[in-house]
Amino acid sequence: MSGVVDAHQHYWRSGEADQSAWRTAAHASIERDFTPADLAPDLARSGVDATVLVQSVDEAAENDRLAAFAAEAGTVAGVVGWLPLADPAAARAERERAGTDLWCGVRTLVGRDPLEWLQRPDVVALFRDLAADGLAWDVVPTTPEQVAAVVRLARAVPGLRVVVDHLARPPLDSGGWEPWAAQVAELAREPGVALKVSVGVDALTAWSSWRPEVLRPYVAHVLEHFGPGRLMLASNWPVVLLRAGHGRAWGDLRGAVAHAGAGPRELQDVLGGTAARWYALPAAVPAGTA
After folding, report:
1. Does residue 284 lie within any of the structural domains?
2. CA 233, 237, 239, 242 torsion-angle sign
3. In which band, very low, low, confident or very high, does the pLDDT at 290 lie, cut at 50, 70 and 90?
């Protein structure tokens, strides 16, 4: 598809699912409903044509909620659904059960857990099947061990399109650099890996306020190593509301990419072209009720 794509956003209704795997008392401000009607005005103001809707809970019911939200929203071009990837038999069964017509990728929350299971032959076979079916894999590796595991899988399944979320969790709160910078470079050496220019919940929680100037060196580093053809802009709405509204976050992230040296053509990739290619999004956004 053509146009501007917000490559990472969520919808949920308060109380429908247990988000305690990533949400704490520090996130009380986002413990409420966030629906397509809430996001639609922000997308219009930001000039966003379509979004990628991403799972936020590891359970089968999440896939049903995602399908319903995608049908409700006229702007969802693709869904990153949930699969229990460490259990290939269960993952295959859930994929068969869930309505996956709009799926462009899969994800399971990994936190800082070890990812040795990615080396198992049955898991590698599952990823080969997902790659053959055109599905990308979203993940946020934050430790050197996790990065090494993702790199090994990318090499074992060269046809797999890997999407690293949220700038691979840079140390925005401390202003640190290593080992994050080296990990980004290691991931970027794999041609099947792309990266989202967005800010994740860990960094948002640790960050005392929204400070766009702090983003600039980190965004410049990922642009240098990945290039615009493997970067995609993403709001991480509504999680980003912990520190900034959609419009401000979108504008500042875009500004950081431009400040790093991306010209108009490069920005077209980051603002939608990369997401469209990496997720194999349809030429047109499916019609919805929003």
Report:
1. no
2. positive
3. very low
